[in-house]
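Reading is simple: the token line describes the chain's fold. The lines below illustrate.

. . .
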Amino acid sequence: MGNRAALPLAAAAVIGVGLALVAPGLAGGASSPPSPGAAVAAGRALYVESCSSCHGMDARGTPGVAPSLQGVGALAADFELSTGRMPMSDPAAEPVRAPPAFNAAARHALVAYIASLGGPGLPAADVAAGSDADGRRLFTENCAGCHSGLGAGGVITGASVPALQQASARQIAEAIRLGPYLMPRFGEGQLSDRDVASVARYVLSTRNPDDRGAAAGGSATSARFPRGWWRGWSG
């Protein structure tokens, strides 16, 4: 979604002014989000400023530079922007996680605009609906071969495999449904929404290796964390 190196401070200032004019709530500090129409308009203005040089004014991509964003939906836009994989300084490089180039309000606007071009919405990521045991099993069967048993990442032919320790529940669900870079995509026919929630629940549980209490017969996750522990990781 554009070139990270092509976003100097002057352009950032222009973007901030544009957001304030189109949708004041996106400029920061608003108590309520802008209307969907205002968010799309603000996102379009931001897209033109920071993404169109690679993806084209009509978001249909540029051969050999950047893919079309028509039909990728909020799913791809939110994942790529929230994990800092986009914008990229080198379109030929492997996208890797980095601090997001845009703040939350700007990302919301960009996602709203890309979503308006069609495509899948944001996936369900309610880890409260998941199962500890199912999450461990599904992760072992489908993910551990590349990401390792505790989501520490690794290397495969042609790519590095990211660690999952910084991913939120929603980003985990998005990656499962999207299949970024060389990762396979898992549709609802392969993993249900509850399965996805279970996998996300398991990944979040690996961030505290203290397994005290699990040996007493309860689940490892419930022994390590109090009720509602996942809520801070749902965004």
Remarks:
- The chain has two domains: 4-115, 127-233.
